[in-house]
């Protein structure tokens, strides 16, 4: 009995000290630079967002922030690096449904699950558009649908770019092909920069993707064309480009994609709360908001931690359902 009582007293003492130790660890976060892991090469839209977020986040956290680019395998290489790191909040993943929901469905080598990550806060929502090489004979969605049907009959299916197998862009291209009943050929790239490079060079026909000032400048310069935007209304950065809802063939082909910040799901709650608070402060930064607005991004409204996590769980269910509907399987 004395042994049992003594052990119980030890457990009680440990339990009493644990919250204080946990709180002390949280108060020390961040005690070193926080890395924003971008799953695509430098120069693309994701990289630009991270480099706009980094300065105000450094101020909010009172700590240096670093942007690290690691592209490849639809963003899964960077995602796995985050999962292999300690669960301490110092390696934060900047991601979308591309990398965390769709890639595991399509790439056999990916072993992580969407649920291994927790969304801390969404930062922005991006409108999307269908861009095409300049020589493609299509000025709107209906003309694109007609051209796709024509070249398919000739045995030369339309080619569409993506940032990798299983990416949202791959999903949209496959869905468009299914919706139109027209075969198209998927051409995966390591990142958006490479995809736009080949689109400008005329090596691929279309690219369905988020866009910013760099892409609209290419359109203005005549290096590529914007066929249609995937939002119900025309967009401020592409005011002369029709919406898909103005067409007959693609009336319901609308889409947008959000960018958020994620950590490993077992990251201590107190650390997540500090990071969440920092990101909420970032969203009030006037320079960041202006910068995202100029890029064509819509700044995310404030989210509680519970709202951010719930939104991510809903996306998991939504995108898995779409992937199943179009027959996206591992290795496709």
CATH topology of the largest domain: D-Maltodextrin-Binding Protein, domain 2
User: CATH class of the largest domain, please?
Assistant: Alpha Beta
Name the beta content range: 15-25%
The CATH superfamily of the largest domain bears the name Bordetella uptake gene, domain 1
Structural class: alpha/beta
Please give the share of residues in helix. Answer: 40-55%
Described by strand count, sense and barrel closure, the largest sheet is: 10 strands, mixed
Rounded radius of gyration (Å): 22 Å
Report the uncertain regions.
1-5, 7-24
Count of helix runs: 11
The total beta strand count reads 10
| Overall geometry | globular
- Average pLDDT confidence is 89
Order of helices and strands: HEHEHEHEHEHEHEHEEHHEH
Number of domains: 2
Instruction: Give the termini separation.
Output: 64 Å
């Amino acid at each position: 009995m004395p042994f049992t009582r003594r052990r119980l007293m030890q457990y009680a003492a440990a339990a009493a000290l644990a919250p204080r130790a946990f709180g002390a660890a949280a108060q020390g976060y961040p005690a070193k630079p926080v890395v924003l892991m971008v799953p695509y090469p430098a120069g693309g839209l994701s990289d630009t967002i991270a480099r706009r977020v980094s300065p105000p986040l450094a101020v909010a956290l009172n700590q240096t922030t670093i942007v690290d680019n690691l592209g490849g395998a639809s963003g899964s290489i960077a995602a796995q690096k985050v999962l292999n790191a300690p669960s301490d909040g110092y390696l934060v993943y900047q991601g979308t449904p591309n990398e965390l929901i769709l890639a595991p469905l399509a790439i056999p080598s990916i072993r992580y699950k969407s649920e291994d990550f927790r969304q801390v806060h969404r930062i922005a929502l991006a409108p999307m558009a269908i861009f095409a090489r300049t020589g493609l004979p299509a000025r709107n969605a209906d003309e694109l649908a007609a051209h796709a049907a024509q070249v398919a009959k000739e045995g030369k299916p339309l080619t569409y770019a993506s940032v990798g197998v299983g990416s949202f862009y791959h999903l949209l291209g496959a869905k468009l092909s299914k919706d139109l009943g027209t075969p198209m050929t998927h051409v995966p790239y390591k990142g958006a920069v490479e995809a736009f490079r080949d689109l400008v060079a005329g090596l691929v026909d279309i690219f369905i993707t988020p866009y910013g000032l760099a892409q609209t400048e290419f359109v203005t310069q005549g290096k590529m064309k914007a066929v249609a935007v995937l939002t119900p209304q025309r967009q401020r950065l592409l005011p002369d480009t029709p919406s898909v809802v103005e067409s007959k063939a693609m009336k319901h082909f609308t889409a947008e994609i959000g960018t958020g910040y994620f950590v490993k799901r077992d990251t201590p709650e107190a650390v997540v709360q500090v990071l969440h608070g920092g990101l909420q402060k970032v969203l009030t930064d006037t320079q960041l908001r202006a910068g995202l607005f100029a890029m064509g991004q819509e700044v995310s409204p404030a989210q509680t931690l519970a709202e951010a996590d719930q939104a991510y769980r809903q996306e998991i269910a939504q995108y898995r359902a779409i992937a199943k509907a179009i027959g996206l399987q591992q290795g496709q």
